[in-house]
Amino acid sequence: MGTRHLVIVVDDDPGMLRAVQRVLQLHGFETEVFSSVEGFLEGAHLEEATCLVLDIHLQHRSGIELRRQLARSGHSLPVIFITAVESEATHRAALEAGCVAYLRKPFPSDLLIEAIETIIEKDRKR
Fold first, then answer.
1. pTM, entire model
2. Which of 33, 37, 75, 124 reaches 20 to 30 Å from 43, CA-CA?
3. What is the DSSP letter of 51?
4. CATH classification of 6-125 is 3.30.70.260, yes or no?
5. Residue-wise pLDDT tens for the chain (126 aa)?
6. Could you tell me if 40 and 69 are in contact, meaning their C-beta atoms sit under 8 angstroms apart?
């Protein structure tokens, strides 16, 4: 068995959080899941993570703003944004904030896995 890959998921929808966690674990990924930005900021193991799956519309914060905050504090963790609310402005803002993938809920699980595999591949080539 190769390297273990930790994927951190932040989504305030409990059903979505469980579904994403299940898919990731089925594909052999370790997961840390958080239903709030506060929990994530307190408990996430950012240094050990392969990537971050981040909901754009969180209860008290925008996932995009959280991504910018992480970047400002020196965390260059690849981010996959997920959202149920599709808008051109949100998509543009997500891309500008620096995401490797942007998935509209409900998304096929293989799209998520493909995005993570792409991140792992890029990392391997570095």
1. 0.94
2. 124
3. E
4. no
5. 457 899 999 999 999 999 999 999 999 999 999 999 999 999 999 999 999 999 999 988 899 999 999 999 999 899 999 999 878 999 999 999 999 999 999 999 999 999 999 999 998 887
6. no
